[in-house]
Amino acid sequence: MRRKIPRKIERLSDRLFEMAEDPSLLFNDNSERSQALFKMIKSKADGWRKPGRCMYRGCPNLSIANSHSIQRTGPISQLLEKGHVLTPKFWNGGMQLKSVGASDASTFPGFCTRHEAIFLPFERTSSISTDEHVELQTFRTICREIRRKSYDVQQLEELLAYFNDRLESKAKEQTAAQKVEFKSITVQGGVFGKIQEMIDAGKKTVDDLEKLYDLHFDAIDNKVRTRLSGFCIQSNLHFPVALSGLIQHRTSTANHTWIAGVIPQAGGSLIFLAGQPNDQHIINQYMNDVKISVQLIGLVEAWMVLHTDHWFLKPSVWQAIPAHRQDQILTDILDVSKSGLSYEWSIFDDLRRAAMVVPAPVLLGPKEEEIFTIQRAKMN
Ligand SMILES: [Zn+2]
Q1: Strand, coil or helix: 85
Q2: I want to staple 115 with a disulfide (CB 3.0 to 4.6 A). Which of 19, 111, 222, 258 is the partner?
Q3: DSSP assignment of 262-318, as one string?
Q4: Which residue has the higher pLDDT, 379 or 10?
Q5: What is the pLDDT of residue 75?
Q6: How, if at all, do strands 67-68 and 107-108 pair?
Q7: How far apart are CA 318 and CA 316, in angstroms?
């Protein structure tokens, strides 16, 4: 005969399962919860600024706290208004564009003083103009993404351990109150399971990025050709954004981890993408759909909204966007289910309008007309 679970134990386990779905129940009240949240956000920000080991392979030195992943002179300084640029930040339960000063934009604890100096060739000229410069910028982007992603994983692991501790002490409290013996508690579902999934996905991305590092390192250390695939173009479009980040391109058969950059410089913007050697044909297919300027604008917007939040935008460009579209863009930045080659709303209205000006004697064909109609609708 099956033994019936006593009602009070059933109620107790229901309450504990509820906590796994809603971690706010792990706290006694709102003030305790806000304090814990504030402490977590502050420790996350402080920890990120702490020097770590230099990311140049084999170097035993400690990094400086603020290596730039996009050089400050040149790209960022072109975008400054009143000394500031805008960057996406998760704040108060939502995404916002926050103002940051030039010296804080795009810094990370990356390299020691000696290895920070390897970037001097293009730091001095404020222009990425040779293959060697591109290899260096690619290296810096990979390093920044490895550090960022590893740090995110570490933070999630600490968060999960913290929730587990809270759950255990709540379970002890409640079992004692019911005079029930407490042994242990393990939760795999609910928020606990979601955090674990994020940790696993983060670790996989770090592995992918480390492979890119391995394939690229010789190009920096021995000045040989990189083994990475990808492309690099100098576009004559002056994108009012500097971006350096991770692209996760999903196809029906696989996920591809790439790094990309948009660097404003004299004459326009340098745009690059790099991935593993056997990704070249997928990158070619990906770029095949980007034939005219407006499609390249859409691609950069897709990188900003659907792939990476590591970018710095000229403030007046954002201020010119109507509020309803700004809200949509911020919501979409948080929506991880979205991916793709193009984004449905416009960020760069002026650039887009200029790219669609057709010189007087030229008549558009039906295909171009169709593309332009789609492009105009993005500015609603
Ligand atoms: Zn070093």
Answers
A1: strand
A2: 111
A3: EEEETTEEEEEEEE-GGGHHHHHHHHHT--SHHHHHHHHHHIIIII---EEE-HHHH
A4: 379
A5: 83
A6: antiparallel
A7: 5
Mean pLDDT across 240-265 = 92
**Cα–Cα distances in Å, from 24 out to 27, 36, 153, 265?**
6, 11, 22, 47
Confidence of residue 2 (pLDDT cuts 50, 70, 90): low
Give the pLDDT score at 73: 67
27: left (phi over 0), alpha (psi -120 to 50) or beta: beta
Compute the distance from residue 51 Cα to the ligand 1 centre, in Å. Answer: 12
CA of 55 relative to ligand 1 center, distance in Å? 7
Q: Would you state the structure tokens that stand for residue 138, as one six-digit string?
A: 């690619």
How far, in Å, is the centroid of ligand 1 from the Cα of 65? 13
Considering the chain, what is the average pLDDT of its residues? 87
Determine whether 102 is exposed, middle or buried from the number of CB atoms within 10 Å of its CB (0-12, 13-18, 19+).
middle
Predicted local distance difference test score (pLDDT) of residue 24: 77
Q: Which residues pair with 241 in a beta bridge?
A: 313
How do residues 182-205 score in pLDDT, each as one tens digit? 777 777 777 788 889 999 999 999
Mutual orientation of helices 190-221 and 7-21 as an angle, nearest 10°? 30
Q: Which DSSP string do the residues of 8-74 spell out, in sequence order? A: HHHHHHHHHHHHHH-GGGGSSSHHHHHHHHHHHHHHHHHHHHS--B-SSTT--SBPPS-EESS-III
Distance 117 CA to ligand 1 centre (A): 10
State the number of CA atoms in the 13 A half-sphere of 286 facing the CB: 28
What is the whole-number distance in angstroms between the Cα of residue 63 and the centre of ligand 1? Answer: 7
Ligand 1 centroid from CA 13, angstroms: 52
Listed by start position, the domains of the chain span: 7-70+106-221, 229-377
Closest CA to 335 of 372, 309, 356: 309
